[in-house]
């Protein structure tokens, strides 16, 4: 799932109202050959690295033997680790080197360490392309679009030519899509965000009441649903995470990250039974939730710093203060394109909250209930 709303418009309205309307992009009606000098100078570092690998992979598909190896991998697994696929000497040396270099560049651009390992993957653009993926066919290779409202996708053939495809209309010819393993990047990135929050004092330890009460109260998500239309074929599953914020017992803002890797598709109800908030960590019985999506370009180090710098200026005044607006305002406006996209927010989640909770933006809803975690 990819959330195609205009995020810049969304943040402007979100700071002044409790509901934001989303705008959808328009699609190009057909695919045509394009000049080979496709501009990438304005692309993000992640997209630039992906594009270099996509062009190299497209060129490598001129070799029938290697093309068959890629085809088998793509048909056998929905998402193929490019580093693993190109290792062992089967792939052209230039392509293997390009994948290694791109993995390092992407990790750096996302604020992740080199120890993160491989991040690039390749997949077939849509299941409907499988029948056309014959041994004699050299598929085009594209990069997952880096513009939420983009109507066009650039794909490369084995001769190095660029082709413009519609992002809304699935092409008939097979297309391999190069993108980032966002699930892996998000899990690694959120761990670094948690570490940065701890170092900044935004995640003070919970109270010791568990020892006397035999456990602690939480809010559990029973079901969650996101509403968003016109998903482009070029983009894969979303990677959703939430920031739960409130005031800790030390009087500082506390932020907890919650990874929600199961939220792949819109118009689908998921039943995760996932803990959203641990109330033993908060001074008040109220907290806020901001749900976001990582489409591949999120720099988690920058995200943590931006939030820490903004939230450390907010102090406990003896009463709960909503924090959604402060979190949204802290995130650079450029991130409301295809980086950490704003999905929805929930103000004043209470320890006693139960039943369906609609997001302020009207894009999501959750059903929750208080849940006591028993200590053994």
UniProtKB/TrEMBL annotation:
The UniProt record lists the keyword Oxidoreductase: no
Record's signal peptide: 1-22
Keywords from the UniProt entry: Signal
Domain of life of the source: Bacteria
InterPro entries according to UniProt: DUF3103 (IPR021452), TAT_signal (IPR006311)
Protein name: DUF3103 family protein
Protein species of origin: Actinacidiphila bryophytorum
């Amino acid at each position: 799932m990819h959330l195609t709303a205009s995020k810049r418009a969304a943040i402007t309205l979100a700071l002044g109202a409790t509901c934001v309307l989303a705008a959808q992009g328009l699609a190009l009606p057909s695919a045509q050959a394009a000049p080979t000098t496709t501009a990438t100078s304005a692309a993000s570092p992640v997209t630039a690295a992906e594009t270099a690998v996509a062009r190299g992979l497209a060129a490598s598909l001129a070799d029938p033997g290697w093309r068959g190896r890629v085809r088998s991998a793509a048909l056998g697994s929905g998402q193929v680790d490019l580093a693993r696929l190109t290792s062992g000497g089967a792939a052209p040396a230039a392509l293997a080197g390009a994948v290694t270099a791109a993995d390092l560049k992407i990790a750096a651009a996302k604020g992740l360490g080199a120890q993160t390992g491989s991040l690039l993957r390749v997949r077939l653009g849509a299941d409907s392309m499988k029948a056309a993926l014959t041994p004699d066919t050299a598929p085009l290779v594209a990069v997952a679009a880096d513009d939420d409202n983009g109507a066009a996708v650039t794909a490369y053939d084995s001769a190095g030519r660029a082709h413009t495809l519609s992002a809304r209309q699935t092409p008939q010819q097979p297309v391999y899509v190069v993108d980032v393993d966002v699930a892996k990047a998000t899990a690694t990135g959120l761990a670094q965000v948690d570490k940065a929050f701890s170092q900044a004092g935004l995640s003070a330890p919970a109270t010791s009441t568990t020892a006397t009460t035999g456990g602690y109260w939480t809010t559990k998500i029973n079901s969650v649903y996101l509403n968003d239309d016109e998903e482009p074929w070029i983009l894969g599953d979303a990677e959703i995470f939430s920031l739960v914020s409130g005031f800790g017992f030390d009087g500082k803002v506390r932020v907890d990250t919650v990874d929600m890797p199961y939220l792949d598709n819109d118009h689908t109800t998921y039943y995760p039974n996932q803990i959203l908030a641990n109330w033993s960590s908060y001074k008040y019985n109220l907290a806020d939730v901001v749900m976001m999506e990582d489409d591949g370009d999120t720099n988690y180090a920058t995200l943590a710093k931006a939030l820490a710098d903004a939230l450390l200026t907010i102090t406990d005044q003896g009463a709960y203060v909503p924090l959604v607006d402060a979190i949204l305002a802290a995130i650079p406006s450029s991130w409301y394109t295809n980086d950490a996209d704003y999905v929805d927010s929930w103000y004043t989640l209470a320890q006693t909250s139960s039943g369906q909770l609609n997001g302020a933006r009207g894009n999501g809803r959750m059903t929750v209930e208080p849940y006591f975690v028993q200590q053994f």
